[in-house]
Amino acid sequence: CAPTGLYVFTEVTLKVHLSDASTQQPLLGATIQLFANHTSVATETSSADGNTYLRFPFRLGTPLVVTATRQGYVPNSVPWTPSKLPVFSSISLDLLPERAATLMVYEDVVEIKSSLQGLRGQPSIHFLRRALSLPADTSFANLTALLTVASSPSRIQHFPHLQILGSNSTGTEKKFELTPVAAISVHLLASDGAELQVNGPITFSVPLPVDSSLKENDHIPAWRFDPRLGK
């Protein structure tokens, strides 16, 4: 029998507009990627007006994720799964600027915390000093710490979309939308802007939202966004 439209790939163009979440100004130089089944199928860079156009083969029913990254901003992503084959489609993504943080280096521990001093219960990050290997000709004085935390829905929406795969009662695979209680973006940068990796456990301390039903010492799962997979 002849193939139905569900199994035919069609060339589709998706317009993506990038803006700064604080100023609403268009963002130049952001990297936009389109992922299908955690594999990148298209990559472009936003122009001065914040726009970019992704052209790719699309099969109706294929779940896609659009991600946007730019140095100095929190990555963001959004699912794109039209119910009909679109003649034209466009989406907008706002990127939240990263916040400068306070870096404290002790004899045994490194601490990164919010630069807003005097706040009670401010978010902080701890890890062992030996877990960090500095590049040659680099000292702790050359490092820059960034820490951006969101616990309200209006700010969490500027972090990557949270979605997982699981099995339902029939054993078939299904996507589940998750609602995070908090989101964290933390980076430790060398003087050339390169990200440093921590080879060891990292402790995150985040204040609970005022309206949260969670209590201290409750156990909740944590997910890490991987820009290489778009999830």
UniProtKB/TrEMBL annotation:
InterPro entries registered for this protein in UniProt: FAM171 (IPR018890), FAM171_N (IPR048530)
Domain FAM171 N-terminal: 12-230
Domain of life from the UniProt record: Eukaryota
Matching Pfam families: FAM171A1-2-B_N (PF10577)
Stated name of the protein: FAM171 N-terminal domain-containing protein
Organism expressing this protein natively: Ameca splendens
Organism lineage string: Eukaryota, Metazoa, Chordata, Craniata, Vertebrata
